[in-house]
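Hi, here's the filled form for the chain we discussed.

Project: internal
Contact: R.S.
Residues: 367
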Amino acid sequence: MTRFASTQRVIFFEEPVFQDSSSAPRLECRNADGVVVAVPMLPSGWSPAQVLSAERRFMADLVATSGSVAPIFWLYTPMAFPVIDGLPSSCIVYDCMDDLTGFRGASPDLRKHEADLLRAADVVFTGGHSLYAAKRSLHPRVFPFPSSVDVPHFRRARRRCAEPADQAAIGRPRLGFCGVIDERLDVPLLDAVSAGHPEVQFIMIGPTAKIDPASLPARPNVHYLGMRPYADLPRYFAGWDAAWMPFARNAATRYISPTKTPEYLAAGLPVISTSITDVVRPYGEAGLVRIADAPDEVSTALEAIFNEPPASRKARRREADALLATMSWDRTLAGMVAAIDAQMAVGASDDLPATGLRVESSLGHGG
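And the returned structure, exactly as it came back:
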């Protein structure tokens, strides 16, 4: 969105924040790297119907101020569709990053809203090839865009840098994970591997959500550092000996394409992952990520990493760098722009001119 914002006005419409029940509803806006972040501030205790009514009113006001060209609506979740349904638009984009129906606590209305959104959408993007395979028969214009990566940002991990204080005191070797700690994490696998390797320090960076923190392994060699800013991640990665993606294989991970895979590789780290489809292909098949589902397989992968000759590790990095060179966010942006421009040209009419992405407002909904 920051890249889109370099050429047009972008408003990111967030989930509501609930305040004191006596507070007046308002839309709070702030600038974040050129993107206007709009957050509905609503009284607590409101019914879902009241919340939706307020969100639609705020959205209609934003559309009214967008000028003579109707905005592009860009939705990351089908639950946002009722907010924009019926409002004028130049294009509706459904950016499907996950199969949200597989997540714990998913709304029972999710499937209905997704069916409505698929009927209304002009283009559909998917966050990986597994999702593309699942969605391509549901819409005539589906385009896969696997995770991109800011290579210069994460390459900083290959340089010497001051280590964060909360990690500096932890011993080595270190095996790190960065991401939301939720139902997608294979907790039994983490428990078994950390128990079997007391000499390895397991660094866990990220917030805990939708699972009881007490259910996580509480061992001296497992360290939960919490959520850390994106800007600081290379400093943490620089202090790891390898990265790990211990994802469970369940409904919530069936279609994921972890963004961390290319980020770990850009940082120059050896990577171990469970057999997530979009990690196995292409990273596992190319020998860039070691695939390990069982504790003994993880042990074998760790032994191979810790004993890998420097020449072999350098060769692996070169191969990873060649792949990462094709995965920039700028390249993804260009592909998305081309898909949207093509559809807007097809749908152009006298009262809704095709203006490509040079519209005055793009509206997204957080999820």
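Let me know if anything looks off before we file it.
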